[in-house]
């Protein structure tokens, strides 16, 4: 997503090019692109000058949205999202801690947009990209 954000407004980016720059396989990227495309964060452009582009401005896409699409729930333990998964969830002190931790993680991820990441990347230089997201 950061690769697409860095090239936002410049035209489509080929998966092959992203794979080469990030030293990861196109097959792996395909598994990431599909859900992001079906959820409306990425658009594909067909043709000789085709590839992939962000469907909206990088400043409008936050990390929480991306990770929810790719990973599902971001809760660290099942009982936070699904209290019925544990018989003790009503009285469990640690569940409260996990719930608060999950909330803090979500808030942090919501506050970081691809636009902010592009700005940080510009300040750090070309070697700062990571394929983790």
Label the structural class: mainly alpha
Which overall shape is indicated by the principal axes computed on the Cα atoms?
Answer: elongated
What composes the largest sheet?
2 strands, antiparallel
On the 0 to 100 scale, the average pLDDT is: 92
Trace the largest sheet across and list its strands.
1-2
User: Count the strands?
Assistant: 2
Number of helices: 7
Low-confidence segments: none
Order of helices and strands: HHHEEHHHH
Radius of gyration: 18 Å
- What is the percentage of strand-forming residues? 5-15%
N- to C-terminal distance: 7 Å
Task: Provide tags for this entry.
133 residues, two-stranded antiparallel sheet, 6% strand
Overview of this protein structure:
The chain has 133 residues and is mainly α. Helices cover 52% and strands 6% of the residues. It has helices spanning 2-6, 15-22, 26-38, 63-71, 78-81, 93-111, 114-124; strands at 42-45, 51-54. Strands 1-2 form a two-stranded antiparallel sheet. The model has no long low-confidence stretch (mean pLDDT 92).
Secondary structure: elements and pairs:
Layout: H1 2-6, H2 15-22, H3 26-38, E1 42-45, E2 51-54, H4 63-71, H5 78-81, H6 93-111, H7 114-124
Antiparallel strand pairs: 1-2
């Amino acid at each position: 997503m950061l690769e697409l954000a860095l090239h936002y407004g410049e035209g489509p980016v080929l998966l092959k090019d992203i794979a080469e720059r990030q030293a990861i396989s196109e097959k792996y990227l395909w598994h990431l692109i599909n859900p992001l495309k079906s959820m409306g964060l990425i658009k594909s452009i067909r043709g000789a000058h085709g590839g992939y582009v962000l469907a909206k401005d990088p400043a409008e896409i936050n990390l929480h949205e991306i990770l929810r699409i790719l990973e599902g729930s971001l809760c660290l333990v099942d009982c936070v999202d699904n209290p019925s998964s544990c018989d003790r969830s009503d009285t469990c002190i640690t569940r409260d801690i996990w719930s608060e931790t999950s909330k803090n993680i979500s808030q942090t991820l919501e506050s970081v947009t691809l636009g902010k990441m592009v700005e940080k990347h510009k300040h750090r230089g070309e070697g700062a990209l990571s394929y983790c997201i």
